[in-house]
Design a protein that fits this description.
Elements: E1 7-10, H1 30-40, H2 53-64, E2 70-73, H3 80-83, H4 89-97, E3 103-106, E4 110-112, H5 116-136, E5 141-144, H6 166-177, E6 183-187, H7 194-199, E7 206-213, E8 236-241, H8 247-265, E9 269-274, H9 289-307, E10 311-315, H10 321-335, H11 348-362
Parallel strand pairs: 1-2, 1-5, 5-10, 6-7, 6-9, 7-8, 9-10
Antiparallel strand pairs: 3-4
Helix pairs in contact: 2-10, 5-6, 8-9, 9-10
Bound molecules: zinc ion.
The site of zinc ion has 7 residues, from loops.
Length: 365
Amino acid sequence: MIGERTVHLFCDDVMLGHNPEVDMPFIPSRVEKRVRSILEGLTFKWSYPEHPGRLSAIRQYLEANPIDGVHWTSGESATYEQLARVHTTAYLDHIFSLAGQSAWLDKDTTAMSPNSIQAATAAAGNAIAAVECVVRGDAQSAFALVRPPGHHAEPVRARGFCLLNNVAVAAAHAQAKLGCERVLIVDWDAHHGNGTQDIFWADPDVLLFDTHCASPFYPGSGHLHETGDGMGEGYTINVPLPESAGDAAFESAFRDILVPAARHFKPDLVLVSAGFDPHRNDMALNLTYNGFRMLTRILQDIADEHCRGRLALVLEGGYNLTSLSSGVHAVLETLAGGEVPELVEPGILAVQEALDFHRPAFTDD
Ligand SMILES: [Zn+2]
């Protein structure tokens, strides 16, 4: 029943300050020239897709449709030391030196605006706070509603609208300060979490399980044979999916691959890179809201079985504001103890209804 479990929701308005507007003056650079030439080649007016309206839309929807058991709160910004567990100091010093200005950081159109450092450090800090919350046992689960997102950010560079790898910073903090020895990170965003994979590539204490739309979809990594290296070999599990994959494929990936892997790994914390772009109305893939509920319930069961329910989610992508807001709402209802309906192929229920309606016309029943 909804309200049976408590969920802490971490958010902070400072994250609205990250707002790259392409018409503003940017720091001149080689990448700036490159991006400008790409944008000039487009036949439409491009605006930065990862915008503050994403977070505002979620907030408004959740405030208009509150859920029993879900409580709003916020955390501190991440410190340089906390970030330096997963990013090089050279990279951090570089982006910190750009504070107060607008700059393109990657030719894939990742940029920062004058207040982006405050937003990005708040995003990483709220992911840390979500982890501290579930490890302390303040709530059964936590969701960090953050932006800019994180899973494309590599140790040495920004990519894919991501500046700092929020989920990786949170996982590293759990290991360094909260006594967690084995952290499971599940990334269900439509895009492969290349940054998270890179950061924990050789680490046997972090198991990364990543479902995503297969290459050549951005960022092009996440092939089946990418399984980690050195001591970390076998601790990266990629499940590349065709663009049409939906609830049934995700359910099988989670039940048949993730659940046994988690049983083998025995995590003491479960983190989720929760993107809402695999929803059928968004960029790629075909999940429904009930599909998100089902994935959430499987993760709750994994966390209940192995680590006293410690489950923390961190927002990644999701660009259709309706499916983003409703998707977050569906996940939160499930975290709060809501029922998960049995999954049926979309359309089956409508066909059943039509059958009942038409049958008398051509039978004697
Ligand atoms: Zn994504």
